[in-house]
Amino acid sequence: MSERFDRTKRLLGAEAMEKLHNSHVAVFGIGGVGGHAVDALVRSGIGTITIVDSDEVAVSNINRQLIATEKSVGRKKVLAMKEHLLEVNPSVEVYVHDCFFLPETESEFDFAEYDYVIDAVDTITAKLALVEACENAQTPIISSMGAGNKLDPTAFEVTDIYKTSVCPLAKVMRRELKKRNIKHLKVVYSKEEPLEPIEDADFVSDEKRQRRATPGSIAFVPSVAGLILAGEVVKDLAKR
Questions:
Q1: Mean pLDDT of all residues in the chain?
Q2: N or C terminus: fewer CB in 10 A for the chain?
Q3: What is the DSSP code string of 72-127?
Q4: Are strands 186-190 and 156-160 parallel, antiparallel or unpaired?
């Protein structure tokens, strides 16, 4: 095992580190939450990573996304992230899917080849499709609930979807998963009441005011959610 993981091995032991090295984790969505999750996975010794996202790095990502810098603006997120991960650990295997995960792109993925899946996507349709795909393949999955419009990183909890409260996204997921007869889903969610985003009156049109406001976000909330996701995956894989 490389010296770069020596401090981790002192906590988990050599056998657990070997399990992590032999594990393949897929991260769907590598924005504010998923980007920090995949970085932590590679720094923890996961040997094979699949990353899925079709966005490009935007200036508006810089306030909270790990790979977003002046140099990376305009680049595909998956390519910028792969480059970053190989700088962290040149030996990690990184597979890239430059697409959004939706029911119509599901055929591009073999969920049976993953040892764990992290759901850090934004849409309910994609989240439900991911959970169903993992359920069918019997692959463990952990999902991130809403991190937008939040300011308290201490309010996150890890629990089953059916034990969640407060979070509007979790409420919808509970209802839809129940319809699909999916009885369990491990999630990271926040009990903090969402804040109302502040709009700049000088730049917001009446039409935009009538639509759903763009959520606010900050560096220290989605990053914490991502680190919690990664921590749960590493602990689960290390003890298998």
A1: 94
A2: C
A3: TTTSBHHHHHHHHHHHH-TT-EEEEE-S---GGGGGG--GGG-SEEEE--S-HHHH
A4: antiparallel
Amino acid at 205: S
Average pLDDT over residues 197-225: 74
Residues forming a β-bridge with 95: 50
Dig out the tokens for 154 from the structure.
């201490």
Q: Are 214 and 197 in contact (CB under 8 A)?
A: yes
Rg (CA), the chain: 18
Residue 213: pLDDT band by 50, 70, 90 thresholds? Answer: confident
Asked if the model's pLDDT at residue 41 lies above 70, the reply is: yes
Candidates 48, 31, 33; CA nearest to 100 is 31
Distance of alpha carbon 1 from the chain centroid? 27
Which candidate, 77, 124, 81, places its Cα nearest to that of 101?
Answer: 124
Average confidence (pLDDT) over 45-61: 98
What are the strands, taking DSSP E only, across 20-81? 24-28, 48-52
User: What letter would DSSP give residue 175?
Assistant: H
Q: Are 66 and 43 in contact (CB under 8 A)?
A: no
